[in-house]
Amino acid sequence: MKKIATISFFAIIIIVLILVVVSKIDNSPLMILKVLSGSMEPTINTNELVLVIKQDQYKENDIVTYKIDNYFITHRIKEMTNDQVITKGDNNDDVDKAIELSDIKGKVVLIIPAFYSNVFTVIGIVALIILLIIILA
């Protein structure tokens, strides 16, 4: 039983490490990003992580992440016309300036509570490995 737990734990660590590394590659189809503002509360809270995956198509009401001037913004699609997309933060009063469909980096497919955000760092992974070694010793 201890062997299965060890293998499972290391498998989770490897998956997390792969996700972290892949998400740091420029133009990656998969990203893990930390939310820095409350514009999407209560749907997504400040300091939570979002797993963003590139999609072939997007539709109204999807929560997407796009990049403008080196900033990632995660908001909900309110309206789409041809190649133009209008988004809005759930907690914002006004819609955002229209963006190009090509500006969208992906759709939010998973929201990770802020409590777990430290696990998705190199230090967090090292801490998990050390914890496992202590438990199994």
What features would you highlight for this structure?
single chain; 137 residues; alpha+beta; seven-stranded antiparallel beta sheet; 2 helices; 7 strands
Number of strands: 7
Runs in which pLDDT lies below 50 for 5 or more consecutive residues are: none
Sheet with the most strands?
7 strands, antiparallel
Helix content: 25-40%
Mean pLDDT: 83
| Straight-line N-to-C gap | 15 Å
What does this structure look like?
- The chain starts with a helix and ends with a helix.
- The chain has helices spanning 2-23, 122-136, and strands at 30-34, 49-53, 63-68, 71-81, 84-88, 99-100, 104-112.
- Helix content is 27%, strand content 31%.
- By secondary structure, the chain is an alpha+beta fold.
- Strand 3 (63-68) and strand 4 (71-81) form a beta hairpin.
- The protein has a seven-stranded antiparallel β-sheet, with helices on one face.
- Helix 1 (2-23) packs antiparallel against helix 2 (122-136).
- The longest helix is centred in the first third of the chain and has 22 residues, at 2-23.
